[in-house]
Design brief:
Its cofactor is Ni(2+). This is Damage-control phosphatase ARMT1-like metal-binding domain-containing protein. InterPro entries: ARMT-1-like_metal-bd_sf, ARMT1-like_metal-bd. By secondary structure, the chain is of the alpha/beta class. The chain has a single domain, classed as Rossmann fold (3-Layer(aba) Sandwich), CATH 3.40.50. It is built from six helices and six strands. Strands 3-2-1-4-5-6 form a six-stranded mixed sheet. Strand 4, helix 5 and strand 5 form a beta-alpha-beta unit. Helix 1 crosses helix 2. The chain is globular, with a radius of gyration of 16 Å. About 10% of the residues have low confidence.
Length: 162
């Protein structure tokens, strides 16, 4: 899953969080269609999440919206769900959905979670905004070669904007 955050600025008093998930199933990854139900369940235990969800910020099936309308009228909500346009555990930011590209245009922070997204395809990628890469390494060869570690080591790598 990819999370895109926009910090509050002088013009916007609200933190906006975009939860990004696969458009199609891949391994044990959550899809964008499944995500609102998970958020709703978690919101039962977290007042902050509940208030964000109640504010109308959850957008299911963002891919079905009219692309031009979405680009011109990005919802200003505290929490929304967007499909990434992918169906695998990795993510190539050159080939994401137009909705994700639009929603992430002014991001201040991107959080890449999972070995495919954080290590396989974006470990050395530098972003124009701050990035946090989180993953558990589930391949011994990759752990040794890339991280000089061992299998099941965890990666928590923060990189400031480049």
């Amino acid at each position: 899953m990819v999370k895109v955050l926009s910090y509050p600025n002088k013009e916007a008093e609200v933190l906006q969080v975009v939860l990004v998930a696969n458009s199609l199933p891949a391994l044990n990854d959550v899809t964008a269609v499944e995500l609102p139900e998970i958020v709703a369940e978690a919101a039962k235990y977290c007042d902050i999440l509940r208030r964000a969800a109640e504010a109308g910020g959850l957008l299911m099936d963002a891919m079905t919206k009219n692309q031009d309308d979405f680009k011109e009228n990005i919802p200003s909500v505290p929490l929304m769900v967007v499909e990434n346009g992918c169906g695998g555990p990795c993510i190539d930011f050159r080939q994401v959905s137009s909705e994700l590209a639009t929603a992430a245009n002014d991001a201040d922070l991107i959080i890449l979670e999972g070995m495919g997204r954080a290590i396989h395809t974006n470990f050395n990628t530098r972003f124009k905004c701050d990035a946090l890469k989180l993953a558990m390494v589930k391949n011994q060869r990759l752990a040794e070669k890339l991280l000089k570690g061992k299998i099941y080591d965890c990666v928590c790598r923060f990189e400031p904007a480049s």
